[in-house]
Each structure stands twice: as structure tokens, then as C-alpha cells.
UniProtKB/TrEMBL annotation, chain B:
Protein family per UniProt: Belongs to the replication factor A protein 2 family.
Compartment(s) where it occurs, according to its Swiss-Prot or TrEMBL record: Nucleus, PML body
A Pfam family this chain is assigned to: RPA_C
Protein name: Replication factor A protein 2
Composition-biased stretches (Polar residues): 18-30
Lineage of the organism: Eukaryota, Metazoa, Chordata, Craniata, Vertebrata
Xref: InterPro entries: NA-bd_OB-fold, RFA2-like, Rfa2/RPA32, RPA_C, WH-like_DNA-bd_sf, WH_DNA-bd_sf
Any GO MF annotation of the entry: single-stranded DNA binding
Location of cross-link Glycyl lysine isopeptide (Lys-Gly) (interchain with G-Cter in ubiquitin): 34-35
Record keywords: DNA damage, DNA recombination, DNA repair, DNA replication, DNA-binding, Nucleus, Phosphoprotein
SUPFAM superfamilies assigned: Nucleic acid-binding proteins, Winged helix' DNA-binding domain
Region annotation Disordered: where it falls in the sequence: 18-40
Amino acid sequence: MAGILDVPKPRINCSMLSQHINRAVCFVGRVEKVHPTGKTFSVSDGEGNNATVELNEPLEEELSGIVEVIGMVSNKGAIMATTYDVLREDKGTPFDLELYNEAVKLIHDFPQHYPFEVAASG
Amino acid sequence: MWNQGGYSETVMAGGYTQSPGGFASPSLSQGGEKKGRTRASQIVPCTVSQLMSASQADEAFRVGEVEVSQVTIVGIIRSTDKSMTNIQYKVDDMTGAPMDVKQWVDTEDPSVDNTVLPPGTYVKVSGNLRSFQNHRSVVAFSVRPLEDMNEITSHMLEVVQAHMVLSKPQTTSGAGGGMTSSSIPPMSRPTMGSMGGMGGSYAGGSGMANNGLSPNQNQVLCLIRSCPEPQGISIQDLKQRLSGISLAVIKQAVEFLSNEGHIFSTIDEDHYKSTDNDD
């Protein structure tokens, strides 16, 4: 697990999955359906597209709301999750997933101002 | 200049409370210097990758063109380590390996909250970038847990906006980066003469051209220069070609250019030729 946390994990949405196959990514989305086995669930992004998340261990509790999943993108475009966090929405303001999606598109439009890599420091 | 103005307005709306003095007046934050060079008296939203890649000259760090000293980052705590005098966090914002963040603990002051935040907490860190024996870290004066996760989104947007605006004005106009200094001399644009519509975006660009003429004056001069006819181009023709500029402004430009010796009248007061023509 330490390995994937120490590399850049570009924030992406569903339309960018195919460009990140076999790479580490960070995917934020709304939990849609949890498979009965608890080992996989679907998430939707701010554009309404769905992706599949696959876990190593089955979920131990009910998962809902907005999650941030870190994992590798498989050849089939699923996210093999290493870890995930629930973005809490209990303190008042709900998370605006559509706006987050716009921000994701923006940072990919301006990689010079939001780099997902560490250049050699001078 | 308008770049700095735009930045301070937007950042005020973004709710920076740390350094109000720096944002209230752009001249303060520039330290009185005229050009776009920024002094390190502002707090700049950054990514961990930017902080790790920043170049260092003496005590000053630079992310590209932007000098950074006080920074904010938003990320999730991956690990914590508390000692008697400080708390060390590793904060991950997905742009690279988690960043070391050190927060000093004030053991004497009971009002200061020294509770260690647990891993998995999303935080906004405000502090100073430091480098010690080639190891980069942030010494934080504030590590605040996020209550509204939309701050993750707003930080992403603020990072791009701040670095875009704080970069040298000649290279980025903040409005898409399409205007560069190389596009200013009108002679180099073959389409200038035929496209009156270009006037709008051009005039909104970087202000003064290299030859000391305003964008409007440059457009008028360029059209006059490009006219091959012996009697020159008329003011009516200029008005037709420069649909974005009013007749009064065109006449003002013509008068200025004529006074400066760039153009002269030919058959009447309404026709002008450029003094730089080869023929």
C-alpha cells in the first residue's frame, strides 16, 4: 500500500479512465450500487458516468455518499482500489460533485499550474 | 496591472483570512516594485508537487515564475507523529508522495489546541516552505480540518488561478494565455489588415505595444501601412475595417499618428499614407 501512496495519483473522471490504464489514480464519485459480496461497487462521477471499483477485502459496513478512491486502473477500465476515504457531508454543506468535475477538467487543461509529477528540484 | 487587480479581488472572495494586508492593496504585495515581480509577502495556494519541485535560490523558493514562501496546501493526513515539542504529519494531496508538515506545540499556552488530528482527516495546511539538508517540508502555523469538502475543489481552482495570475504578465494574460508578447508587433500579423474582428481580443491584451503605441493606434497604423494605393486609405475605409473601434477613436488615433510623423495626409484630410512605405 505504501507504494501507491508515494506516487502521483492524478484526479480523474470516467472519461479519463482509458488514458490511465495501469496507472495510479484518484477517483472521487458518488457510491451507486454495492455488490452483495461487498467486493465491488459502482461510483458515478460529476458527469453522470459510472465506473466500477474493485476491492481487495469486502466492505465491512454500508458504503454511501461521496468516496475518494485511490487505486490502479485495470485493462478493463475498472479501479482496483488500494484505499478509499469517505468525504464527509455531515457538517452542513453537501459536496458538489459537478463542480469537482469541472475542477478536474481544469487541472488537466493546465498541467503547468497543477502538476501531477515532481520535477527535479533545483 | 489588471492581472494583480484581478487576483486580489478573486482571492478576497475566496476567503483568505491569513494575510489581509497583502491582498487589500496590490501595491503592498508588490513591495512598491513596478513590474509584475512578486515579493514573498503573500500566501500562495500550492500543490505538494509544486513545493517539491520548486527551485531554491538562497532563502527564496520559486515555482516557475512564482516566488513562494507562505503557502497553503489541502490534503489528507496519512500519518502522524507527536513528540514533546511538535506534531509531524504527512499530508497527501494526490500530486505526489505525502508532504512532511511540522506543527510546533506550545506546551505553555493552554488556549492552543494541541490535539493530534488522526490519519484520514482532510486538512488545510498554512505555513512556510522549508528546506533542510535537501529535505522539503512545511512548517505550519495552522492545520485546520476541513468541514466542507468543497474546499478540496476550491483549492484546486485557487492553485491554478493563483499560479496563472502570479506568473509574469507577458507570458500569461490570465484569460487563457493566448496573448504572448510575440503577437504584439502588428507587422508580424498578416491577417491584421483584413480582419477587423481581431481588434476586440487584441485590444484587451497586454496594453502598451513595444513601439509605444496603444493597441488602437497600432491597428490603425497597420492598416494604413498595408494600403498599396497612392492616395492612401481613407478614414471611412478605416472605420469599415475596424468595426470594433468607434470613428472618434479612429480619428484620434489618426491625429496622434500624424503628429508623431508615422502617417501623412494625401489628397485630402481624410486620406492617409504611412511614412514607412517602400513605395
